[in-house]
Specification:
7 strands; globular; motor protein; Dynein cytoplasmic 2 light intermediate chain 1; 7-stranded mixed beta sheet; developmental protein
């Protein structure tokens, strides 16, 4: 009877033989983290073509998908993570993104177009925390594995043509990034000037960070466009070369296909821009955007100190038992003996 060691040894030898004879097929294995809008899970379900009803995400959830390359060939694997709670659980971002998978990781940021006042703070908080974490990993790799760290930094520019006029004016995100604007059907009913400001701002942010941008809704045709970008990152499917920059239509701009010249200047007068005292291009666009859409302080943007008190995780039976336990503790601590105490 083969021992566990014998089985492991045989598996390693089998893999080495496949690689050695030149006929081995590399298994594509990628990881994606969905964050932002709480309904991001719908994109995971749709990208996997699963016949499931999306459910609210509890904290950090994981699933995976497989795609066959062909007959008798190993299936590609994609690991899908979703961060729930909007910006309230930022600390969990570091869990799925690690030293081991940083080279094969990508971010899908889902922003709710129907809530323009929440859009910038949600985007800014999630991208800032994610970038800080990724930068720390790359810095650490620079000390232990400089070759890998250099490879990641160089790959940031893969989607940007070498002769692109904005090469010196942008700051690509350290790992692949897709920004999805959801609820386009509601956004489409907004005033044209509001749509113009939001479209130009998201185009600038996406281009500045070297990200792809797509607007979508529950429409199957629009979901398909988002699915194309997701499947490109997850399974290496061909990337769409189509582009749509008309603010009166759903935006679809793959990374590297936009430009600052096409986007145009920030939607404000020169005199207003001069009064804003912005330190960076992103800061300038932020100040102009928030002048039209002041950030709102909503429960979605607040930190949740105790997740047990967060209504999105409510479970009647569990909460009832917890309330009873708390009541017992209160009665004991207060030395109370009444009919209200067990």
């Amino acid at each position: 009877i083969d021992t566990l060691w014998d089985i492991a040894k045989a598996e390693v030898e089998k893999k080495e033989n496949l690689e050695g004879d030149g006929d081995g097929v590399e298994v594509w294995e990628k990881s994606l983290l969905f964050m932002g809008n709480k309904n991001g899970v719908i994109f995971i379900v749709s990208s996997l073509n699963r016949d499931e009803i999306p459910k609210p995400t509890l904290a950090l959830e994981y699933t995976f998908g497989r795609r066959a390359k062909g007959h008798n060939r190993p299936k590609d694997i994609a690991h899908f993570w979703e961060l729930g709670g909007g910006t309230s659980l930022l600390d969990l971002i570091r869990i799925p993104i690690t030293n081991d998978n940083i080279r094969t990781f990508a971010i899908i940021l889902v922003l709710d177009l129907s809530k323009p006042n929440e859009l910038w703070p949600t985007m800014d908080s999630l991208l800032q925390v994610t970038r800080n974490h990724v930068d720390k990993i790359i810095t650490k790799l620079g000390k232990t594995n400089p070759k890998v760290a250099t490879e990641i930094k160089q790959r940031m520019w893969n989607n940007m043509p070498k002769d692109h006029p904005d090469h010196e004016l942008i700051d690509p995100f350290p790992i692949p990034l897709v920004i999805i604007g959801s609820k386009y059907d509601i956004f489409h009913e907004f005033d044209s000037e509001m749509r113009k400001i939001m479209c130009k701002t998201l185009r600038f942010v996406s281009h500045y960070y070297g990200a792809s941008l797509v607007f979508t809704s529950k429409s199957e045709a629009l979901l398909l466009k988002a699915r194309v970008l997701i499947n490109h990152l997850a399974f290496g499917f061909d990337r769409s070369k189509s582009i749509s920059v008309d603010q009166n239509k759903p935006l679809f701009i793959p990374a590297g296909l936009d430009s600052l010249n096409q986007i145009g200047p920030p939607p404000a007068s020169d005199s207003d821009i001069g009064k804003l005292h912005a330190h960076t291009p992103v800061d300038l666009w932020k100040k102009i955007y928030e002048k039209t859409f002041p950030p709102k302080s909503t429960s979605d943007l607040k930190d949740v100190n105790d997740p047990a008190q967060d209504p999105q995780y409510a479970e009647y039976e569990v909460d009832a038992m917890r309330a009873q336990k708390n009541q017992v503790h209160y009665c004991v601590a207060a030395h109370v003996t009444t009919t209200s105490c067990p």
